[in-house]
């Protein structure tokens, strides 16, 4: 099945099984805003816990905060967001559709990469064991041609972005013959800058109201609290401040479900270090964050680093961690070496000293900062994309059968255990309820007595429950139940008293954190 079709199915699966709903759906929705349903919120909370504990629990020099969404408007002037938090936009005059000029070009460049990978795959299946991939990549004429085109475009694009040269961006689109996917024409407007911050008004006095912004990132809440946390927590460099919270961006193009939203959530950590050590710390955090992703077991080859074409105004190094979504490799997380830009700006605009007194050096200075920044929603999409499987279970005698299963890592699964009485009578529901009453303090358990056992298993597979147990007529006799494992679909008979240990062993966050 084509990857786009899988993605469409995944989106409807998320809706059908209570993971993600379109916001304001009964009013036909609101663009790029989504609500999380009964299972979605559990998965989201588990992702946040995995991140939070990996930062705050595992590092004695990282602490958390929870700062307000509204902040003094001068903060956004100081941070550069008022003047420079822009995306280059371009409209197609025929379809009247609006695009991000940089994204149009990046998608065009990705086509060359796809072409190269397809050639490699074709050759791999043709040559089998004897395939020499590096040799093939460095000599095959089709690959060399695609690579040459890619490199030329890449150099031109990087320079245009670096210089914020809007005319050149447009020219690249024209020269590359990029057409609007809707109208198919190349009838483009000029490229313009568009500020992504939402503004609103606070209070109303005779002098008027204060224009405030909905924060477009959580990071600034950390910077402006740097001194508060450093002093009250008696923190010494290097140390970090972590925060999870909502952010808002008036995205020009909002596509691909929860990949790009106008209201979303971020998990950000700012790590304050001695000037001069920042590039070592940058490498450290790049590697640690990659490990955090890969510990989930979705396959190392599905991740890669991507170094930025254009460094943001505040950065001296930046890399993204990209995941292979059904629609291609895309950013999930950014790691940025932000220098002392933010603290220095706040020092200048607020007039307060944003410095650390280093007792070893016996001097005060503005620390440098490494930031790790990941979107909760984008991570959510990564997790469900990686976990969604359609399995053909056709029997040996040819009877067709299939299932959709979310192979969620056990810790992340919204429901850990489903307890299913074989029948709705003869005391089996009561025994089932008793088991839940025992285990509900440890895990999210679900009771289900409707439909056949087979159908109930399928329902739990579809929401990603790692364990189901069936209570049958043997249970009152010998206090055993059948446990069924989601991924292997294997079943075994175990005593009720062992349930907690078996499940706790696998669903515990400790197992994941130990891999870091
Ligand atoms: P992009 O290039 O995709 O617009 P960005 O480089 O502007 O992203 P950052 O400002 O570095 O993103 O934000 C850090 C993280 O926040 C991103 O890696 C992503 O996971 C998440 N994020 C950013 N914008 C959105 C959005 N509109 N919807 C959902 N998540 C987002």
Molecular structure report:
With 516 residues, the chain is of the alpha+beta class. The chain is built from 18 helices and 23 strands. It has 3 domains: 43-85 and 196-390, BirA Bifunctional Protein, domain 2 (2-Layer Sandwich), CATH 3.30.930.10; 91-193, no CATH class; 415-514, Anticodon-binding domain (Rossmann fold). The strands form 7 sheets. A 7-stranded mixed sheet has the order 3-9-10-16-13-12-11. The protein has a 5-stranded mixed sheet with strand order 20-19-21-22-23, with helices on both faces. A hairpin with a 2-residue loop joins strand 7 (198-205) and strand 8 (208-214). Helix 5 packs across helix 8 (166-175). The longest helix has 27 residues, at 101-127. It is globular and about 75 Å long. The mean pLDDT is 94. The site of adenosine-5'-triphosphate (ATP) has 16 residues, from strand 10, strand 13, strand 16 and helix 13.
């Amino acid at each position: 099945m084509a990857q786009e079709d899988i993605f469409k199915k995944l989106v409807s699966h998320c809706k059908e099984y209570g993971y993600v709903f379109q916001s304001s759906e009964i009013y036909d929705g609101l663009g790029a805003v989504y609500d999380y349903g009964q299972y979605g919120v559990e998965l989201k909370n588990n992702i946040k816990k995995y991140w939070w504990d990996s930062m705050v629990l595992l590092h004695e020099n990282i602490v958390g905060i929870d700062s307000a969404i509204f902040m003094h408007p001068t903060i956004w002037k100081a941070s550069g967001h008022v003047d420079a938090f822009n995306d280059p936009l371009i409209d197609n005059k025929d379809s009247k559709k609006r695009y991000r000029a940089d994204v149009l070009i990046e998608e065009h460049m990705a086509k060359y990469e796809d072409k190269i990978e397809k050639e490699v795959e074709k050759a791999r299946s043709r040559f089998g064991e004897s395939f020499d991939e590096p040799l093939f990549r460095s000599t095959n004429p089709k690959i060399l041609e695609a690579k040459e085109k890619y490199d030329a475009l890449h150099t031109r694009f990087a320079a245009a972005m670096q210089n914020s040269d809007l005319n050149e961006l447009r020219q690249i689109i024209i020269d590359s013959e990029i057409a609007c996917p809707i109208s198919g024409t190349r009838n483009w407007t000029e490229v313009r800058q568009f500020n992504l911050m939402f503004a609103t008004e606070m209070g109303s006095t005779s002098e008027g109201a204060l224009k405030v912004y909905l924060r477009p990132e959580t990071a600034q809440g950390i910077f402006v609290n740097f001194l508060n946390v450093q002093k009250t927590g008696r923190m010494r460099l290097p140390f970090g401040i972590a925060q999870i919270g909502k952010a808002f961006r008036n995205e020009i193009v909002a596509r691909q479900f929860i990949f790009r939203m106008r209201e979303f959530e971020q998990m950000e950590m700012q790590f304050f270090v001695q000037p001069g050590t920042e590039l070592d710390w940058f490498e450290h955090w790049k590697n640690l964050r990659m490990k955090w992703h890969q510990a989930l077991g979705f396959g190392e080859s599905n991740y890669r680093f991507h170094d930025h074409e254009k460094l943001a105004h505040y950065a001296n190094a930046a890399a993204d961690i990209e995941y292979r979504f059904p629609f291609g490799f895309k950013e999930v997380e950014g790691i940025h070496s932000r220098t002392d830009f933010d603290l220095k700006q706040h020092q200048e605009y607020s007039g307060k000293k944003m410095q650390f007194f280093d007792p070893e050096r016996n001097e005060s200075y503005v620390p440098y900062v490494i930031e790790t920044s990941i979107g909760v929603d984008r991570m959510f999409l990564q997790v469900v994309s990686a976990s969604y499987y359609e399995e053909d279970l056709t029997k040996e005698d040819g009877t067709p059968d299939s299932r959709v299963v979310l192979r969620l890592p056990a810790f992340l699964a919204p429901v850990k255990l489903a307890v299913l009485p074989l029948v709705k009578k003869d005391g089996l529901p009561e025994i089932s309820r008793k088991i839940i009453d025992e285990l509900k303090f440890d895990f999210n358990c679900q009771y289900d007595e409707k439909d056949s056992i087979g159908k109930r298993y399928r329902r739990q597979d579809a929401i990603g429950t790692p364990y189901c147990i069936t209570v049958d007529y043997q249970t009152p006799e010998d206090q055993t139940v059948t446990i069924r494992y989601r991924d292997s679909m294997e079943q075994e008979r175990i005593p009720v008293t062992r349930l907690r240990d078996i499940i706790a062993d696998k669903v515990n966050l400790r197992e994941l954190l130990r891999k870091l």
